[in-house]
Amino acid sequence: MQFGFSSYSFYQHLRTGRMSLLEVIDWIGASDATHMEIATVSLSPEISNDTSTLDQDPGFVQEIKTRAADQGVTLSNLVVPADLLGEDAAKNMARVKRHIEVAAALDITLFRHDVAKWAHRAKDVAEFEALLPRMVEACKEIARYAAPYGITTSVENHGLLMNGGERVRRLIHLVDEPNFKTTLDVGNFMSVDDNPVVSVAENAPYASIVHLKDFYVRSQYPGDGWHHTPGGTYLLGSIVGYGDLDMRRIVRGIVDAGYDGFVSIEFEGIEECLMANPIGLANAKRLFAEAEAAK
């Protein structure tokens, strides 16, 4: 198991300019982590609108590669948002493919993309079923484009449409490409009121990489800044291990599935990130060690 961070865990400081991506790499290199995922949205001023230009800046790509090598940080995964169902689907598909080429230039072998906007929520199962063939076709096209580069592509359980354990597994089986898997985010299942203990255990065999994310969970309105799920639950990001998710059982499901790859801390809480991230990393390592010892 290799433990590290998503660059999104440092979004508080990347957004304000307090840290650059190269400085994040330096920080990770000096920590107890071994790898970093690059989430392109962490290079944008707005979470909901990825305006990053990594695919247009080969000089910066080379700087990232050199800095990571100098710091002994493995670049594990490139994470790119994409709406492949809307009116700009062709434009977004081309952008995804350019980022696959960026991943190859960085010697990154894992690539995660979306299929729809985060807030796209099917009004009923019939709408989801109608959209599913288009999602399958898009994922097939991307996986086949990435295959000659030796890259495994994935869709994360993310947002309101392609989320929930069963939906993700259906997509994987229908795409049916050997280099197509899932980025398994243990916390995101909560966004669609899915039981993360159950869905993580069921989806772990299909994971290319794991995101550890924790939430504070409330049943009544606690104040501003909380995410409200379709089922009426309120969520707020927390330090990994400090929230209300049953992280021990979740981690046990990952270990019992035989997963032994990259594990990324994806922190999106309100605590100061340079304080929160080392604590989350230490908690993650301890939780996995406990689960391994209990086998």
TrEMBL record:
Pfam families referenced in this protein's UniProt entry, alphabetically: AP_endonuc_2 (PF01261)
InterPro entries: IolE/XylAMocC-like, Xyl_isomerase-like_sf, Xyl_isomerase-like_TIM-brl
Coiled-coil region(s): none
Residues of the Xylose isomerase-like TIM barrel domain: 55-269
UniProt keyword annotation of Isomerase present: yes
Entry's Gene Ontology molecular function annotations: isomerase activity
Origin: domain of life: Bacteria
Keywords: Isomerase
Protein's name in the database: Sugar phosphate isomerase/epimerase
Source organism of the structure: Micromonospora echinofusca
